[in-house]
Amino acid sequence: xxxxxxxxxxxxxxxxxxxxxxxxxxxxxxxxxxxxxxxxxxxxxxxxxxxxxxxxxxxxxxxxxxxxxxxxxxxxxxxxxxxxxxxxxxxxxxxxxxxxxxxxxxxxxxxxxxxxxxxxxxxxxxxxxxxxxxxxxxxxxxxxxxxxxxxxxxxxxxxxxxxxxxxxxxxxxxxxxxxxxxxxxxxxxxxxxxxxxxxxxxxxxxxxxxxxxxxxxxxxxxxxxxxxxxxxxxxxxxxxxxxxxxxxxxxxxxxxxxxxxxxxxxxxxxxxxxxxxxxxxxxxxxx
Length: 287
Ligand code: PRT
Fold this sequence. Notes:
Bound molecules: phosphoribosyl ATP
Low-confidence stretches: none
Shape: globular
Strand order of the largest sheet: 2-3-1-4-11-5
Distance between the termini: 31 Å
Largest sheet: 6 strands, mixed
């Protein structure tokens, strides 16, 4: 594997689909068969490793994987109090969640002093307690954190929340968010020159896919006298293209908008006199 770049992604779970999708959209062809732990790309010198996301930070830090996709929550938990050779490269914008304290709904909590806290993120929680001068005990538990207050194992928990439905189903209320997280692309800091070259290509392609996610290509027609007003309404567009139309009073405006276009924006464009407003998805952007 000396001259092939290794990218580690989660084997199965919440990150798997979007991680494989992102890699494939970046033009790295590979096929996943059954329970294979390794897939070889057939168009680039790249291997994909399928592993547990918990193992990803140490694989990258040790150089067994060169790049990886992992939740930032896991990266922070594993990197606290331990020197790692990992660099965060890109916020990928998916698997967004937060690490929060939560308590049984009937529990009136004033502060966390002397509390028993159950969590799967002991390092992150201990750092938060230390930074905030809170004296509490932390118990590490890998699953079913939400049950621990009911069996007397904890007073409060600190767990990942996305929709809040799990807390609600377990009669718990969110008290305080201590970390916001999303999937991130990480890289080993000490790649060989050859691997660095391949990594640069992959990183630039992944950035191109991520940039494109929120971007839209907008085309519309408008009276030439309204161009300035219309351009002001196009979010995140640098320098729109203005094309004369057969009707000499009118022009077409084409713009790459690097922010979402909502119905409200389209309605405002229409109110300013724009017509034939087309909003199209963008697949990749290479800046
Ligand atoms: O791969 P490995 O087995 O080591 O990891 P894992 O078991 O942690 O995997 P998985 O697939 O559960 O989570 C992978 C990553 O997804 C996490 O590290 C986070 O970065 C991200 N993520 C995003 C989440 C959630 N949202 C999430 N809601 N991970 C877990 N949850 C759990 C949470 O722990 C709680 O039990 O979902 C429940 C709460 O969800 P809501 O929607 O009810 O609030």
